[in-house]
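Hi support team,

I've been running sequence recovery on a batch of backbones for a student project. Most finish fine, but this one hangs at about 90% for roughly twenty minutes before it completes. I'm not sure whether the input is malformed or the queue is just slow. I've pasted the structure tokens below so you can try to reproduce it. Let me know if you need the job ID as well.

Thanks,
M.K.
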């Protein structure tokens, strides 16, 4: 996950066109490394950069939250962030949120 964040920063440093897919890859690396706080931070950075998170972005953040039982954050992402951005949840979204509630 640290290398993923480093590469994301390097992409910005050399003025590459960073997009949602780039962030999704970095968020996924954080998810797989149990770095839920970094995943949430990357989602916030996406929004600050005026990039539109996709259902994949949110699912990766929810998955990161579910690994450590952060049911409250999972529900905030599901109920507030996704609604505000008009991103339609899918089955993976609900599974990750339910898993967070189970572990929390």
């Amino acid at each position: 996950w640290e290398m993923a964040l480093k590469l994301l920063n390097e992409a910005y440093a050399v003025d590459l066109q960073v997009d949602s897919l780039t962030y999704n890859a970095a968020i996924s690396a954080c998810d797989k490394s149990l770095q839920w706080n970094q995943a949430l931070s990357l989602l916030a950075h996406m929004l600050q950069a005026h990039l539109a998170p996709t259902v994949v972005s949110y699912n990766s953040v929810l998955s990161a939250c579910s690994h450590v039982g952060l049911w409250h954050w999972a529900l905030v992402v599901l109920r507030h962030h996704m609604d505000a951005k008009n991103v339609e949840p899918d089955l993976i979204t609900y599974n990750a949120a339910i898993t967070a509630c189970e572990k929390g």
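--
Follow-up from support: It reproduced on our side and the slowdown came from queue contention, not your input. The helical segments are 2-13, 20-32, 36-48, 55-67, 71-84, 91-103. No action needed from you.
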